[in-house]
Design a protein that fits this description.
CATH class: Alpha Beta
Number of helices: 6
CATH topology: Nuclear Transport Factor 2, Chain: A
Number of strands: 4
Structural class: alpha+beta
Radius of gyration: 22 Å
Largest sheet: 4 strands, antiparallel
CATH architecture: Roll
Oligomer: single chain
Helix content: 40-55%
Shape: elongated
Strand content: 15-25%
């Protein structure tokens, strides 16, 4: 009887643990950004190095901007839904609004195009990119987004499905809502 009682308690603890583990899996995922874990740093390096338009100095600045973005990430779980081996975790995130800074740089560009011409009267993209990145670096405005994370329980563990591109853009602070 004692063994059956222990087994029942173990099953109950495991089933309760599974429900909270989906939430923890989302926390772990978002904390990887906040803590700049090695996978996040590798992804940032890949993104930055694949951008051939940036100078070495601009790449360093962009890396600093992304690191600041991730370190300042705030989030709260709004709701959790479980259906057997599937879970939906709804999260509100708060990030620096890098998209707003980019939009402001484009507005400034359209109104002051001549400022970004070189001596030969040719548009200087490097000058514009420096302007945009410096604006992104200076911005302190933040924005809230809602993200739904989908998880599946497999092999005794909750697994987070790949977030959508738009959800990743929200985490990066570059999400632009469709009108």
């Amino acid at each position: 009887m004692k063994k059956i009682f222990i087994i029942i308690i173990a099953i109950l603890l495991c089933s309760c643990n599974n429900n909270t583990s989906a939430r923890n899996e989302v926390y772990n995922y978002l904390n990887d950004f906040k803590n700049l874990n090695s996978n996040v740093k590798e992804e940032v390096e890949y993104i930055i190095n694949s951008n051939v338009d940036y100078t070495v100095e601009q790449k360093k600045l962009y890396k600093d901007i992304l690191y600041r973005e991730y370190k300042s990430l705030k989030y709260d779980v709004i709701s959790e839904e479980y259906d057997g081996d599937k879970a939906l975790i709804k999260v509100n995130i708060n990030v620096i609004d890098l998209n707003k800074a980019e939009e402001e740089s484009l507005d400034y560009l359209s109104e002051n195009l001549k400022e970004f011409y070189n001596e030969e009267n040719i548009f200087d993209n490097e000058k514009y990119l420096s302007y945009k990145l410096n604006l992104m670096k200076k911005t302190t405005k933040s924005v809230d987004y809602e993200i739904i994370f989908y998880l599946e329980f497999r092999n005794g563990k909750w697994h987070l499905e790949q977030p959508t591109d738009s959800d990743l853009e929200k985490i990066h602070g570059i999400y632009k809502e469709e009108n």
